[in-house]
Amino acid sequence: MTSCPFIIVQSYSRSPTDVNGFCRHAEGPVKVWAGRLRLRASRDRPVEHFDTQAAEVNASRERRDQFQRGNRLLGRVIACNGARAIVSASASQGDTSLSQLWSVGRLVTIQVGENRIAGLVYGMQTDERVWNEGSDNVMRFEVELVGELRSDDAGHARFSAGISSYPYLGAVVHAMRSEDLKAIHDLDMSDVAVVGKLTQDETMDATIHIPSLLQRHFAVVGTTGVGKSSAVTLILDKLVRSDERLRVMILDPHNEFAAAFPDASAVLDTETLDLPFWLFRMEELVDVIFHGRVPVAEEVDVLRELIPEAKRAFNGEGESNLFRKSADRASLTADTPLPYRMADLLALVDERIGRLEGREEKPYLRQIRNRLLNLLNDTRFRFMFSSTSISDSLAEIVTTLFRPDDAAKPITTVQLSGIPSEVVDSVASVLCRLAFEVALWSRGAMRILTVCEEAHRYVPADPARGFLPTRQAIARIAKEGRKYGASLAVITQRPGELDPTILSQCSTVFAMRLSNEEDQAIIRSALPDSSISTTSFLSSIGNCEAIAFGEAVPVPMRLRFSELPPHKLPHSTEHAAEASGTAGTIDVQSLVRRMRALPAAEEAAAPAPSAPAGTADPYMAGPANPKASLPASPAPTERPEREAPRVEARPARQPGFEPARQRPEPAGATAPTDTPVKPAPLSGAELRARLMSKSRRR
What we know:
The protein is an alpha/beta fold. Helices cover 30% and strands 19% of the residues. Strand 4 and strand 5 form a beta hairpin. It is elongated, with a radius of gyration of 39 Å.
């Protein structure tokens, strides 16, 4: 044994004393192989005792050289079924140093030959279901196999999701080294972004792959108050910085994201949004006209027949030649995206009412006429009917919504809180449809990301709920968008109420805390079988933490999102401004104006009510003249000159009935008075003459 470079020890039971006996005969340092445990010893530096049950492994030992004294042994495999394994470990006499390295959600490595299998701990218990302070405790850990680590020719660890060799009984389980943990979460590709830190090792960045996130859609789910909006803000900020072609449209029902992107977003609300009525398809316009209620089929048939005629009338005046260039007369339908005037539509309705024939349809014509007039006079729909002239403004609308030439503001926030709730679905349908078509016809020049906040409102799981065109528009982006550069981001606090088809199209999911079992089941169904156990602690993770899984991350990982600076936190600017003031500084007139959905100019024209003179107690005394104390009605909103004049709505009649025609009064007849007139009494001769006349007629 004078020049032996290696000494092989047959088993771990060989004591260090025996090994040192061999080493005394060696002339220089030797390497000792004991199974899979490699030690270094020499004549002057004997091998010290290496306890295989020692478990106090700190961060420095995880990064140590492979021959540094100490070990990371945690236990041995006692069962394996291909997807999961059970590990057994023993802690002597109540020692908790080993058990401290085991925790739910922690990654460990299982040595199999030259490779190492990565496992995720998702359950733990003792054999006796109690903890003994004075004797040994045998522990069992349930581990889910997530992938395999291999060393390349240069000695660097490489991770792959597949497993070539599964653990055998007795395989050694180690605490994971930092270099292995880094190899697992290292995407090893360009176009990655850091969104936070790993919870297992807060010194390591949590990264996502940007192209995978966009091409295959993503979702952020979590209960209220866990930080969904902050997480979405962080992700969107990383996305727009990585791709100059990307344009983001946020459907914001709570007016939160405008404050998160003060310099990078354009804000559209009911006063700045221009979505003309002629851009709505037939189903969308019917939903607006009937305020989300079930429409009358006969009235819908009237609209379907007259809207194409109104489009032809507009085209006939020479203001647009789109119809002549694109299609012939027979192909023009109510869904053809051509402008028309509401005045022409009302004129066609009036013309049909004045016809002698078609008596049975006239009640429906009057009803649809009244509905259209009421819609025109409703200030809440100003974003649809505010234009002073009708023209083909589709190019201007696309520029306003998606800003193709404004790289400084790639985000458009559409604030939906001011839009009537009964027609929000129709507006969302139009916006999502435009997003898909712009991405389609830009031929790769633009990439459109549509962010649907509170997505379960637009695409609910129950097919009987929701608005079908909205569901179809969002589903089209989810199913076909990746081919044309249209991406979808789904944000919801109730994934259980979301259409499973939409969620299944999101290949990357950031699952934050979910307390509802139904919501957890939906996320569990979207996970691969090898990662199901990660949902077991969805109900207990902290705020701003998430479990990310899917195409944009190499393995399911638990992360903590980076903190945003205060000026980038999403919040409702109006609510924040009102909450910061005192009760005496609230602008009541502005509050009332928003309640009435009136523009500032109209509200200023309306005089405020004043208390009657001489009233001692303004809270108890009533006005001397109630009618005189009421505020004047606001001035009517200006309408386009070419729109139909407002006329007083006629009272609705029951379908199928017409009022009896009144006979014309003879000339010189006097108008009837309210007091009935008694006829003059007849003489006997006059009475006999009338009786004789009746008998002759008989």
